[in-house]
Amino acid sequence: MIWFLLLIVLFAFMMGFFQVPIWIMYGVLVGVLILILYRNPLIFGKDAEKIMAYLKKSKAPYMQFLFHFLNGDLSAAEQVMGKIRSKKSKRNSELMLLMEKKQYGKAKELLREMGGHKTKWYALSDIAIKESDLEAFKQNKAKITDTFF
Asked: Which DSSP string corresponds to 114-130?
């Protein structure tokens, strides 16, 4: 992906150097964006088989984690989770595993370390529903400002 982006920057520099008209530059930009959206099924993909095949082929540890997690192979997902570099992605992955294993106490401890992001409130609301704690659910639901979900 890095090489692809460097190639785009080099191509844009060459078009600027040769003073290509701006409408051609915008046309090329739109073409590249359409190509990126078409090639990546995670963005607008609707076919679950294609998405799972993409996750399986991916070399990114978080994508591999998602593949194993969605297939129900929690031990393999836990092994791949150790390779994830991003702290946020690693924390979210650990949270997903804890909630799948129904270890809600550990999940709550992990959520206390997180900032006031909407992921925290959704997870706490889900835990409250599964523990049948109506008061905690109402408190966490009130903190969610996203009306879409």
From this structure: S-S-HHHHHHHHHHHHH
